[in-house]
Prior knowledge:
By secondary structure, this protein is an alpha/beta fold.
Amino acid sequence: MMDSIAMRSHPMVPANGYGKGTPKNWSDISIVTLDPHHWCLSEDVKAAARRLGLDSYDKLKGLARKVVGPVDLMTDEFLNEHKDDVLKLIKNDFSGLLDNYIKGLQTPKDASLAELITFNEEHREVELPTGYDRQDNLEESEASANLLSPEQWHRINDKVTPAGREHGFDRVLREHEVGIILAPADSFVPDVSSFSCKTTKITDVCLQAHFNSDYPFITLPLVYLNWNGRPFGLLAIAPQFQEDLLIDVARAWQAHFPPRQPPLL
């Protein structure tokens, strides 16, 4: 898949494609872990899921070349200072990004974020079951769509992006001299990644930046909910242009942890 979506003419894309070199094992991979007690979404992720993360960290200490942590990605003070700006960007852009994604589907059931919200309400028993019966983020994103002018958007982005990079992933990777950051997948870490990526215009998609610019990442599932197959696990984050390293991490993970399960249909 990486070979299909990557810009083959880019100088940092491997000439022979991804995953074609000599595979790395855990003994070649150095890791820093983030504290799941700090980074998990406490309302949605139970103590058992956090315990799974810590147990996985302990297991990796006997496998990987180097394991540091758990450590903090950034301070609470920094997050509190910048989180409102980040949310403004996310809510401003999300509706348009989702609409563009839907346009690329062959058989979409909904044509826009507004239609998705309506569909969820009309099928609450399936889409909004007890305990997961709110869609505030979607509704707020619809209400906030494109409210920022290009000048406002760039002013906020130019403020938070350098700060997020230097106070987050770059600092952790540099200070601990590692190649991979491991964190709970159900956490605020993807949000930090989204405002740490470089964007040049209001229509840029940060997800694209994860793939081909700043911080590519993969999910590493550990367990699955019985009722819908939803995975819980970890997120592996690499530095810029290190997608091949993430492929090696996925291979090594598969060899020592429970195999991935296909999603329930």
